[in-house]
Design a protein that fits this description.
Transforms N(2)-succinylglutamate into succinate and glutamate. The chain is α/β, with parallel strands linked by helices and 333 residues long. The protein has 2 domains: 235 residues, Aminopeptidase (3-Layer(aba) Sandwich), CATH 3.40.630.10; 78 residues, Beta Barrel (OB fold (Dihydrolipoamide Acetyltransferase, E2P)), CATH 2.40.50.630. The protein is 24% helix and 29% strand. It contains 8 helices and 16 strands. The strands form 2 sheets. A 13-stranded mixed β-sheet has the order 1-2-3-5-4-6-9-7-8-10-16-15-12, sandwiched between helices. The chain has a 3-stranded antiparallel β-sheet with strand order 11-13-14, with no helix packed on it. Helix 5 links the parallel strand 7 and strand 8. The longest helix is centred in the middle third of the chain and has 18 residues. The relative contact order is 0.13. The C terminus is likely disordered.
Length: 333
């Protein structure tokens, strides 16, 4: 296999499903799922996913450039690696998803949906991840990096969303996120149906959803804007130099979730509201029949505002600054 992305977008079975070079062996497991095993013994096992949403193409392209280097034997591979292009059908059609948002379905939530392509895909990805990590030792270092781009613009161009975690975050993982160019980190306080929540909860992986820029179709991305993330990935996959951390990411925590329950839902934000837009206490954020969503803290920031989500799904997250941590880092916010 020479080009994993090209093969995936073709929708055809590969001519060869396994191979090796001087650096690694590889095995095609299913559409958009590739496992690579280094020749040398390793204590690390990483899952890197992209294309969970089919209109978020830049992370797929930068990841594919790195994977092609590995498949050609041009670079050594340090960890055991599972590469996932999450929703190939949606990628082929430049659509966020075919029928349902796959990134709300993990942790068995796919069972709550009708039989749709995304529900079957979420189940298959859970299987692949479980098999991959069960094949290694119990003391392996496990990371899951889920690469995305956002529909909306943002005051923080690159940021990470951290799933609920009951144990301290590994310092080397947080340092890597800063080296990847993330300007902010958002910490969840409750479980959800995302891919990173699944890997963190069920396999104790250090997991992050990386929002690396703006969602654009294949061929429209300026990949130079993703250079820090690409270089940081090369560092953990190949052993290349890790980019210098020029500033620690600002930290936020989720204060409340806006959920669309009925067809009467109204989000009181314009279509061009940027991620991390601030709202003062008392602001009416949304209404849904008799239910009202207001800013409860002195100041809250919104991410992922979207009034068009399916009923029962998140229409936005409200955040507050993690002031104690930011002040410890010398933040001037």
């Amino acid at each position: 296999m020479k080009d994993f992305l090209k093969q995936t977008l073709s929708g055809e079975l590969p001519e060869q499903i396994a191979g090796r070079n001087d650096q690694l062996s590889w095995q095609w497991l299913d559409e958009g799922i590739l496992e690579l095993t280094p020749i040398n013994t390793t204590s690390q096992a990483f899952v890197v996913s992209a294309g969970i949403h089919g209109n978020e193409t830049a992370p797929v392209e930068i990841l594919n450039e790195l994977i092609c280097q590995l498949l050609r034997g041009e670079k050594p591979l340090l960890p055991r690696l599972l590469v996932i292009y999450g929703n190939p059908a949606a990628l082929r059609n430049n659509k966020r998803y075919q029928r349902c948002d796959i990134n709300r379905m993990f942790g068995g939530r796919w069972q709550q949906y009708e039989d749709c392509p995304e529900a079957r895909r979420a189940w298959r990805l859970e299987q692949a991840m479980e098999t991959f990590w069960q094949a290694g030792s119990s003391d392996e270092v496990r990371w899951h990096l889920d690469l995305h781009t956002a529909i909306r613009g943002s005051y923080h161009t690159r940021f990470g969303v951290m799933p609920l975690r009951t144990t301290p975050w590994p310092e080397d993982f947080l340092h890597w996120l800063g080296a990847a160019g993330l300007e902010a980190l958002v910490f969840h306080r409750s479980a959800g149906g995302t891919f990173t929540n699944y890997s963190g909860k069920h396999f104790s992986a250090a997991s992050c959803t990386l929002e690396l820029g703006k969602a654009l179709p294949f061929g429209s991305n300026d990949l130079t804007q993703f250079s820090a993330a690409k270089q940081a990935l090369a560092a953990v996959l190949f052993g290349d130099a890790l980019p210098e951390v020029t500033a620690q990411p600002q930290r936020y925590r989720v204060s409340q979730q806006i959920t669309r329950h009925t067809e009467a839902f109204k989000l009181h934000m314009s279509d061009d509201t940027l991620n991390f837009t601030a709202f003062p206490q008392g602001s009416l954020l949304a209404e849904d029949g008799e239910e009202r969503f207001y800013v409860q803290q002195a100041r809250e920031y919104v991410i992922f505002p979207n009034p068009n989500v399916a009923l029962g799904q998140r229409a936005g997250l409200m955040l507050v600054e993690d002031n104690a941590h930011n002040e410890a880092l010398g933040s001037t916010e």
